[in-house]
Specification:
Layout: H1 2-40, E1 42-43, E2 46-47, H2 68-71, E3 74-78, E4 83-86, H3 95-100, E5 103-110, E6 113-115, E7 118-122, E8 131-135, E9 141-143, E10 146-153, H4 164-180
Antiparallel strand pairs: 1-2, 3-4, 5-10, 6-9, 7-8
Length: 181
């Protein structure tokens, strides 16, 4: 009889753990892992494709320039029977394209605008920088509204999905947490 009570307590604790704590641990581990992909620039040990030699970021590195994509990764649903991690939002509509790598074939609408022309000019004031950007004396050029065709292939730089490494981390954390409690 005592053995049965011990066994019931064990399974009660076991079920309670998997209903209450395990989904939160899983969501936290997966979110952490997916965000780490941006730092390590790989997926399951396979490096992301190299950048185009024409791409020269003004600051940061590709996929981390503004960190908006990485910061959009979050647990969307955390329940006992289901955990969903999502990425992207209205400010980051390109999340899926980066993760899956797709061909984008669409038309972009360009609004009418004025393009200012700038050039460098020498400054002769003492203590000032030698040159600065100033508007050209040629004036501004006006660009009329038009449609522009967009056709390019975004290389796959996966940061979310099934991963053997992530599964190993989840198993290790669940074991460690269960054994600690």
């Amino acid at each position: 009889m005592k053995q049965r009570i011990k066994l019931d307590r064990f399974f009660s604790k076991f079920n309670k753990f998997f209903d209450e704590r395990a989904p939160a641990i899983l969501a936290e581990t997966a979110t952490e892992y997916y965000k780490e992909r941006f730092q390590e620039k790989n997926w399951d040990g396979k490096a992301w494709p190299a950048l185009s030699p024409n791409y020269k970021p003004k600051r940061g590195t590709m996929m981390l320039r503004s960190s908006m994509l990485m910061n959009s990764i979050r647990p969307a649903t955390v329940q006992a029977d289901r955990v969903v991690i999502s990425a992207g939002n209205s400010k980051v509509p390109y999340a899926r394209i980066h993760n899956t790598g797709e061909t984008v074939n669409t038309t972009a609408k360009v609004r009418e605008h004025t393009r200012n022309r700038y050039s460098k000019e020498e400054v002769s004031r003492p203590g000032a920088r030698k040159e600065k950007w100033v508007k050209k004396k040629l004036g501004n050029s006006s660009v009329k509204a038009h449609d522009r065709k967009v056709n390019f292939t975004m290389p796959k730089r996966q940061y979310m999905g099934y991963s053997k490494e992530l599964n190993s981390r989840i198993k290790a954390r669940l074991k460690a947490f269960y054994n600690r409690n």
